[in-house]
Amino acid sequence: MPAPTSSRTLWKGAISFGLVHIPVTLHSATAENRMKFNLLDKSTMTRVGNQQVNKATGEAMPREEIVKGFEVEKDQYVVLTPDEIKQALPRSTQTIEIEAFVDREQVPSVFFHKPYFVSPAGKGGQKPFALLRETLERTGKVGIAKVVISTKQHLAMLLPQDKGLVLNLLRWSDEVRDTAGLAWPGEDVKVSAAELKMAEQLVDAMAGDWQPDLFHDEFREKLMALVEQKSKEGGLHAVAPLPGEDVPASAEVIDLTELLRRSLKGNTAQSAPAAKKATAKREEAAANDEAAPVRKAAARKTPATARASAKPATRRKSG
User: Quick one: where's region Disordered (predicted)?
Assistant: First the structure.
């Protein structure tokens, strides 16, 4: 089964080529379903995080002491400040600026990086959107464009799919490796006619329509089945919360030890008034709950009856 449609708008702008301006929105076309594991301490079942440490000393580095450096030569770096990096960021025009139309077959698949579904924004974009999609479909062309998403400039390919458009972010030319030196068959490798015929017969025998639902991530399915089995067999382990995290509230059980531990680790002077106030609120709420039936019964009585049934206050004897 395909992943559900994403209605979340990730980017809003327009497609532009020549004098044509089509308002559009981008939506994620893929979903990540790989198994994600958390690192845990085997003995305490607490989470283990990734910490930025100095590789020479092994000590943790405070964020304000970390700078960004670009390695020009071996062990030779140039440090860039946040302001210098900010000045080099591309100017966002919120536009998918098509710079050329090329044949679809001319773009190698190794350039494909990440696809997005493109949707027209508003009623005004419906007709020009349909016109562009139909034109690309009839001509067999795709639009090569530049677009800025999340402060990063991308090369992209705009192509028709079904009744809509797909914007596939492309890799830049210097990101695709050269094939020189790979052991690909040369002109000296000859394939006989008999071998080619048998290979074609095998392909024809295995030929069929593209049905992505027939293919599954067997590794993920086996792991998920194992997780479900171990969960049913009592293999669940409670992970202790990190310091500073909120302890889930419970209407039945209050872990006093945990509350005391967290209070001791925090600022006791500041926590005490807050805890006292919270306790007072809980006691007041409990008192109100207990007095509610009495208040309801009193409300049903007439004022005269209520006064008659009221008992005089008992004075406390001074000791």
Answer: 265-319
Rg over CA atoms, the chain: 34
Per the listing, tokens 């999340």 go with 150
- Count the helix, strand and coil residues of the chain and give each as a percent rounded to the nearest 5: 35, 25, 40
> Which of these, 36, 41, 37, 35, lies nearest to 242 by C-alpha position?
41
3-state secondary structure of 65: helix
Ramachandran sector of residue 253 (left: φ over 0; alpha: ψ -120 to 50; beta: rest): beta
Q: Which CATH class is domain 11-31+89-174?
A: mainly beta
Domain ranges within the chain, ordered by starting residue: 11-31+89-174
DSSP state letters, 247-308: PPP-SS---HHHHHHHHHHS-HHHHHHHHHHHHHHHHHHHHHHHHHHHHHHHHHS-HHHHHH
Which ranges in the chain belong to alpha helices (H)?
A: 82-88, 126-139, 193-206, 218-232, 256-265, 268-300, 303-309
pLDDT, one tens digit for every residue, the chain (319 residues): 666 666 678 888 888 887 778 888 888 776 666 666 677 777 776 777 777 778 778 788 888 888 888 888 887 888 888 888 888 877 778 899 999 999 999 999 999 999 999 999 888 889 899 999 999 999 999 999 999 988 889 999 999 999 999 999 999 999 998 888 878 888 898 999 999 999 999 999 989 998 888 888 788 778 888 888 888 887 777 766 666 655 555 444 445 566 556 666 664 445 445 555 555 555 555 445 444 444 444 444 444 444 444 444 444 444 4
The whole-model pTM stands at: 0.58
Q: What Cα–Cα distance (Å) separates residue 83 from each residue in 62, 68, 72, 80, 89?
A: 20, 12, 20, 8, 10
CB contact at 8 A, 98 and 16 = yes
Within 10 Å of residue 275's Cβ, how many Cβ atoms? 13
Cβ count near 276 (within 10 Å): 10
